[in-house]
Amino acid sequence: MTTKLTCSTLLLFLITSTIAYSQDGVMDGVEIHGNFEVYAQTYNEDSIIGAPNVPEKSGVNAFGNFIATKGSFTAGVRIEAYMPPVQGFSNNYGLQPVGAPYRFAQFSKGKFDITVGNFYEQFGNGMILRAYEERALGLDNAFDGLRVKVNPIPGLYIKGLVGNQRFYWQKSTGYVRAIDGEIAINELVESLMDKKLRLTIGGSFVSKYEAPGIRNFEYPENVASWAGRGQINYGGFSFLGEYVYKFNDPNSDNHYIYRAGQGVLLSATYSQKGFGINLTAKSIDNMHFRANRDAQLNDLFINYLPALTRQHTYNLATTLYPYATQPAGEIGIQGDIIYKIKKGSALGGKYGTTIQVNVAIINSLDTQQITSPNDLDSEVYLPNDPSREGYKANLWTFGDKIYYRDYNIEIDRKFSKSFKLKTSYIYFVANTDVAQGTALGKNVHAHIGVLDGLYKVSKKHSIRTELQHMWTEQDQGNWAFAMVEYGYSPHWFVTVLNQYNYGNPTKALRVNYPTAQVAYINNANRISLAYGRQRAGIFCVGGVCRPVPAANGFTITITSSF
Question: Distances from the Cα of 320 to the Cαs of 210, 501, 536, in angstroms?
């Protein structure tokens, strides 16, 4: 930790010194930019919704990025504060209230790009390597080390890196070494530069080193993985595919078995004016890949497995039954069609009508268990499975267990210059035991209807309303949601909403979750203040989730960039 703070303090000193010199005219041409955010909550005990008595009475997550650039050089530092962390984020952030866990220096000129310090990176679709930040999830697995990018000839792109990953205020004990190459055929072959057919191929190799420590079994110190990918574009058509293979990697996620992991992602897209279609298929088997073999939850993932479900934006669809990607094993397909009915037609109306249909189907893999899951205890010898492989699986075959179904249709129509309306229907079949860790023992079947209207009263005044309803006979029963938002352009928004679980089988749990919010926006600055109840559940972004506890109190959010 001392090393990180020392480097960060040095970088911050260099940046502030640069500002001072620039003001004196000694270092003209230096640009300083960045952004900051404050997210804070206060807590009141609320026994009706299960909101606990939080001793601190409030939580604050805040950060500020400061970046200086001059010519080919860039340097930056991020200061973070958790005083203490907002409820629902890991308490590990609270081990140190303020610090600078992210700092870097970068040189980029011509064919070379070199970064020392912290950085984010992704190879291909991320199935073999992706370091990224998702602040809403409390997720940050940035690398701390060295990255080099080289473009030696037109069409050839090479990236290499080595480093540890961020583990809250510390670093992973495992080292990651990786290299990625990509060839853009049309750039490489001059005669193909102007052709409609575009072809790109790429490959990656990633290795993790971690000392085995004191263990009952012999564990690999080096775990290797490789991936190959390709993409073809022709006119409005695009096809991409990627395959990843990971050698045996015993870890806490797979009960320390020696089975190899693999995954495949295929996607085909066609689009033209007023019409688009996308088909995606994915299959994953034993693809937990972490910098530390004993890590849990969302910590220290080297890779990312893209979600195959639609990223819903409406309240009931996003907060009640979101889907969490299952790295241990899943297989699924998704289809998406967008069609815009022409303006002036009988169905399209004066301004046209857009229809979007989306279907996602996800199941377990077809597997044959070698050893009972109850016997897969940590580091216990398995006489019926001496290879300690655990199970066998067919990567291309659907298993019997339903994980998720999402069928939805959205119709968006503008009726006049002042009024437009979206209507949506969503049908979920959710195995919450798998995706959310519940113990229902049965799938939830839920129907959701949405009306979303926007009325422009005048040039500056607008009113947006949402009405949502969920019908389900399982779990917590029926829900209703209503929202009214008043906008005074371009600065002010006032919102009142309520989520009501009126159909809960337990009468005492038929609870309202009201919230009122006011927000002020001025250029790149935004401040909002809300008060209300927060329902306990899970929050997901791209198939990655975190638990959200029940809360009652104020929420303050401030964001700004410069």
Answer: 38, 11, 10
d(C-alpha 389, C-alpha 450), whole Å: 47
Q: Where are the alpha helices (DSSP H) in 424-481?
A: 432-435
Q: 13, 19, 125, 49: which is closest to 549 by C-alpha?
A: 49
> In angstroms, rounded to a whole number, what is the distance separating the alpha carbons of residues 50 and 548?
12
Instruction: List phi, psi (to 5°) of 217.
Output: -120, 165
Rg (CA), the chain: 26
- How many C-beta atoms lie closer than 10 Å to residue 124's C-beta? 23
d(CA 185, CA 332): 31
Q: How far apart are the C-alpha atoms of 426 and 338, rounded to whole Å?
A: 16
Ordered per-residue pLDDT tens for the chain, 562 residues = 434 444 445 455 555 554 444 444 546 789 999 999 999 999 999 999 999 999 999 999 999 999 999 999 999 999 999 999 999 999 999 999 999 999 999 999 999 999 999 999 999 999 999 999 999 999 999 999 999 999 999 999 999 999 999 999 999 999 999 999 999 999 999 899 999 999 999 999 999 999 987 777 788 999 999 999 999 999 999 999 999 999 999 999 998 899 999 999 999 999 999 999 999 999 999 999 999 999 999 999 999 999 999 999 999 999 999 999 999 999 999 999 999 999 989 888 999 999 999 999 999 999 998 877 666 666 666 677 778 888 999 999 999 999 999 999 999 999 999 999 999 999 999 999 988 888 888 999 999 999 999 999 999 999 999 999 999 999 999 999 999 999 999 999 999 999 999 999 999 999 999 999 999 999 999 999 999 999 998 888 888 998 899 999 999 999 999 9
CB 479 within 8 A of CB 503: yes
Strands (E), 235-274: 237-246, 261-272
| Residues shown for the chain | 562
What is the distance between the alpha carbons of residues 225 and 302, in angstroms, rounded to a whole number? 11
Give the burial class of 404: count Cβ atoms within 10 A of its Cβ; 0-12 exposed, 13-18 middle, 19 or more buried: buried
How much of the chain is helix, strand and coil, in % rounded to 5?
Answer: 10, 55, 35
Kindly state the tokens that stand for 520: 């002020």
Q: For residues 242 and 215, give the distance between their C-alpha atoms in angstroms, rounded to a whole number.
A: 35
Q: Residue 404 has which token pair?
A: 């998720």
Reduce the DSSP state of residue 6 to 3 states and report it. Answer: helix
Question: Which residues share a beta bridge with 398?
Answer: 365
* 453 and 464 Cβ atoms separated by less than 8 Å: yes
